[in-house]
Amino acid sequence: MDKVRTPKNIFVQGAISPDAIAKSIANHSGKTDIGGHSIFLGQVRADEKPEGKVVAIDYTAYEEMALEKAFEIREAIFAKYPLTCMHIYHSLGEVKVGELCLFVFTSSKHRKAAMDACDELVERIKAELPVWGKEILDTEGHVWKVNV
Amino acid sequence: MDKVRTPKNIFVQGAISPDAIAKSIANHSGKTDIGGHSIFLGQVRADEKPEGKVVAIDYTAYEEMALEKAFEIREAIFAKYPLTCMHIYHSLGEVKVGELCLFVFTSSKHRKAAMDACDELVERIKAELPVWGKEILDTEGHVWKVNV
Amino acid sequence: MKQVIHLKAFGMIAEKIGTAELELENPGTLAALGETLRGRFPDLQSAKFGFAINKKLLQGDAEIPAGAEVALLPPFSGG
Amino acid sequence: MKQVIHLKAFGMIAEKIGTAELELENPGTLAALGETLRGRFPDLQSAKFGFAINKKLLQGDAEIPAGAEVALLPPFSGG
Q1: Which structural domains are found in chain A, ordered by start?
Q2: pLDDT digits (tens, 9 = 90+) for D23-78
Q3: φ and ψ of A61, to 5 deg
Q4: pLDDT, tens only, C30-77
Q5: Where are the transmembrane segments (chains A, B) (predicted)?
Q6: D contact test, residue of B16, B40, B43, B65 with most D CBs within 10 A
């Protein structure tokens, strides 16, 4: 019988810590049918804007809708690729320059599925989740992040 | 002036620990022009062979040639993609089922370069590095790993 | 009988209208809602945003059901 | 004057010939070396392997320089 999956929280307050990533990786050592993990990490850049230099991004989301959408994306990716595991974590609130704001993690028996699924997940997360980044500048002002 | 890169060691004795991965990730927080990291991890699978079940892989390499080749691949990937950083770690010796034997890590301003470079690096490492895996079985025997 | 809809605004749109939550009389469709909002908040004239009704993305001619939660969504910029 | 070459064997090939290092009189080319080895180690008859001379992959008709380090490389299986 297939496991029934339900929406789960993807949001974490503030930056994602490297230790949390290590813990998540270590949690998979008991799944001995996994041959490859693919991970994407988003890190906040110190971009230079005409209005000033980015020092942090403050993330907000339409949380209920984002979780429903993330679940829909999860299910679609699970249906498309033979994955063992998939994890998505996105920051809310302030994440400073150099800190991590997105952690996408896919695991599969063979590397290709894990890699392709990870790439597609990241693209869909950026395009389809109602999340917004306010780029805080060193001039005390802010600009709204634009995804390209 | 371009930084001159020289061959560096990619081999680690035994399994790659999640903590070492966390440390490597954390080391990049000062590089504030990075926007995305892509990571691939190889994990030893408990494959069922006709001769028995895999319990570990014992890796050996033609080390001097592998390091020269890894350097050549590194240079080619740096020339092809706008990367900030690239790291390759491969185990030698015994790595047990569920443990990590390969850690490939690319970082770039934008996600696409990091992801594409990581995928290509993993393919080239598997195809071109003189490294061999001896799959140790629960029957005390062994079979030689075959990359597909 | 007046129908009320519940507006939620996010990101740059919340900033431009000065609030994240608003109740309005139901103007009928999303297109009509857009006109109402742009009339009431001139800062929205040049702003780009889409709509979700009860958490589903919908286009301008969609009808707004009674009591709906309507979200005003500037372009997503997560990750 | 006898020319000696230094053989290094890896993985399954080292297993089949029973050693990881071997010195041999230079047979001239890689093709000739392959024949010599298959004659001396019947287990290699069915084995697939390539060659590197001084750490560069080379094909059968390549000449082996004096004092070369020649590696016998079964199919790679790293990662």
Answers
A1: 11-144 (3.90.1170.40)
A2: 999 999 999 999 999 999 999 999 999 999 999 999 888 999 999 999 999 999 99
A3: -150, 155
A4: 999 999 999 999 999 999 999 999 999 998 889 999 999 999 999 999
A5: none
A6: B65
Q: Which of B29, B27, B42 has the alpha carbon at shortest distance from B99?
A: B42
Show pLDDT as tens, one digit a residue, over chain A (148 residues). 456 777 889 999 999 999 999 999 999 999 999 999 999 999 999 999 999 999 999 999 999 999 999 999 999 999 999 999 999 999 999 999 999 999 999 999 999 999 999 999 999 999 999 999 999 999 989 999 999 8
- List domains and CATH numbers for chain D: 4-73 (3.10.20.30)
Instruction: Write the DSSP symbol of residue D65.
Output: P
Chain C and chain D touch, per 3+ beta carbon pairs within 8 A: no
Report chain A residues whose CB lies below 8 A from the CB of B40.
36-39, 111, 114-115
- Dist CA D33 CA D40 (whole Å): 11
Q: How many whole angstroms separate alpha carbon D54 and alpha carbon D66? A: 11
Please give the angle made by the CA atoms of D61, B72 and D67, to the nearest 5 degrees.
40
- CA-to-CA separations, A32 to A36, A84, B48, B91, D2, in angstroms, rounded: 11, 10, 11, 18, 53
* Chains in touch with D (≥3 Cβ pairs < 8 A): B
Token pair in block for residue B45: 């699978």
CA-nearest residue to A104 within chain C is C79
Give me the pLDDT at residue A67, please: 97
Q: What is the DSSP letter of D20?
A: S
Separation in Å, CA D12 to CA A46, A64, B55, B129, D73: 51, 56, 19, 16, 9
What distances in angstroms separate CA A62 from CA C46, C54, C58, D2, one per listed residue? 22, 11, 15, 80
Tokens standing for residue A77 = 């990716």
> Measured between beta carbons, which residues in chain B are less than 8 angstroms from residue D53?
none
Amino acid at C21: E
Q: How far apart are CA C27 and CA C31, in angstroms?
A: 9
The Cα A28–Cα D72 span in angstroms is 37
ipTM: 0.95
What is chain C's length? 79
**Dihedral angle at the C-alpha atoms of C18, C24, C27, C29, nearest 10 degrees?**
70
Distance CA A148, CA C47 (A): 18
Inter-chain CB proximity D55 and B122 less than 8 Å: no
